[in-house]
Amino acid sequence: MDQQTTSHNLIEGCKGPNSFYVKLVSSDGYQYIVKREHALISETIRDMLCERQIAENEINEIRFENISSHILAVVCSYLEYKYRFKGCRLNEVPEFQIPPAIVLGLTLASAFLKC
């Protein structure tokens, strides 16, 4: 499967109220396709998705005007990490590595996203 076909399939997976994926868009226009079950870890994203009445052919897309791509990329990784290790004992969970240069921005984003 080529990259264009893969992109098309991911976008199709973002459509409808019960989509498998959700598209998150950063303030600088970068798009991240994440599994819905991972995105729902964030209370804010969960609330945003629940509040919307979306048609079957509409894309589940959330735009973050105050979160840049380098922060949103780490947020997406963290949502996957948190989903993957939920229910595990603390000593079984590896430390989530955060680049020191983005700690402040990531802290602000995680407070807003409640994740």
From TrEMBL:
<dbReference type="InterPro" id="IPR039948">
    <property type="entry name" value="ELC1"/>
</dbReference>
<feature type="domain" description="SKP1 component POZ">
    <location>
        <begin position="22"/>
        <end position="82"/>
    </location>
</feature>
<dbReference type="InterPro" id="IPR001232">
    <property type="entry name" value="SKP1-like"/>
</dbReference>
<protein>
    <recommendedName>
        <fullName>Elongin-C</fullName>
    </recommendedName>
</protein>
<dbReference type="InterPro" id="IPR016073">
    <property type="entry name" value="Skp1_comp_POZ"/>
</dbReference>
<keyword id="KW-0539">Nucleus</keyword>
<dbReference type="InterPro" id="IPR011333">
    <property type="entry name" value="SKP1/BTB/POZ_sf"/>
</dbReference>
<dbReference type="Pfam" id="PF03931">
    <property type="entry name" value="Skp1_POZ"/>
</dbReference>
<comment type="similarity">
    <text>Belongs to the SKP1 family.</text>
</comment>
<dbReference type="GO" id="GO:0006511">
    <property type="term" value="P:ubiquitin-dependent protein catabolic process"/>
</dbReference>
<dbReference type="GO" id="GO:0005634">
    <property type="term" value="C:nucleus"/>
</dbReference>
